[in-house]
Model the fold of this input.
Amino acid sequence: MLLRELLSGIEGPVSETEITGVTCNSNAVKPGFAFVCIKGTALDGHDFAKSACDSGAAVIIAQKDIGLKEQIIVDNTRLVYAQMCAKWFGDPAKKLCLIGVTGTNGKTSVTYMIKSILEHAGKKTGLIGTINNMIGGETVPSNNTTPEAYELNSLFSRMVESGCTHCVMEVSSHALDQHRVCDLPFEVAVFTNLTQDHLDYHVTMDNYLEAKKKLFKMCKTAVVNADDPYCEKLISGLDCNVITCSAKGNGMCSARAVKYKPASVEYELLFKGKLNHIRVQTGGSFTVYNSMFAAISALTCGIDIETVQSALASITGVKGRIESVPTGRDFSVIIDYAHTPDGLKNILSTFAECDKNRLILVFGCGGDRDKTKRPIMGNIAVRGADYVIVTSDNPRTEDPAAIINDILEGTKGYSTTVKVIENRIEAIRYAISIAREGDIIVLAGKGHETYQILKNGRIHLDEREIVREALNDFWGKE
Done:
């Protein structure tokens, strides 16, 4: 591809130079490549521009003068990189009906629900998200909730080649802020909620909201949670069609006559003046919201209500989201990804509604992330559970004991039993060892993850395996 084609619409010299590849990784540069200098949190691509030239780069795209003959200076290399990657793959997103889902919690569940509905309607659908990426039925490993621009457009291209007509994707605030998804033609964009998270990156909730809002400036229709406190700020000034959804009667669409059961929810969905019965085989108030967002998104894309009803009724769950681990005993073990204050509150309130003996919670907080949410989550834990075991999540480079101490600040003054077991494996084993008839044990924070990130790198840690081993060790084989 010619350089002028890659940079069409971007200020700079027109060049007939043949480009053989596009990258922002200097180690991946080959002769004829375009190397884009991107400044990250730890490394600055401008520092590797000379190395990229030595490896044969035909052009360097930079934000500042680095004294190289091959350089082209632009205002924002992240933005230009995303645009170049889209052009390199032939703008594949424009050949898909694209649905984006953003919000602090619920993104994964909503995307899986939408994918299920679309597939029930006979649409071959791709998925991009936290657990994995999917091209129809093919699973592709996921490293980020929303991939970097090159990988993202590569996935779109593969979806088109395989016959996908639709793609539903999680869109993170980081991806929006870093222009990874710039100029993508979203048919529908969903806003699930906004609660405290990622303030280590965004610093303020207003900044966090503004990052999310960028998605709704790229879509035809916005499906928005009317019950979220940030709803009005989010939709203010939007030019797209806006559909507000509520479980409290506040929106254009609403969930009415909601019936909560331990393992399901049922309600009447009011959409365009008609009531439609919805049943989902997952409990909790958040399931009402997630399924409502999924249903409205699918209906907006032209899927009939009968297909929506059938698909939602058949969904049995998503890995790491209220995932029940078989125990063969008279107590329950639930694995959930809840790693934010709102997520933890939601999962605890879900099981507070169930018949049980004790609600035992095992949780921690991630290292090198927003520290201010730690005592908040500690407070939610002691108010929502009967027995709390504070442990490690992904401590990363931080001292696990220091993270735990931050959590414990929020537990002071409550009578709830709080036990600290820093090693997560031992914490889970302890919870299993003290289980009684009718107890519900919630393992929060890791969800679908089968690893733990420590100071020295990743280790294998699959909570399902730990639970099975602990059941055999403390309760005998089934």
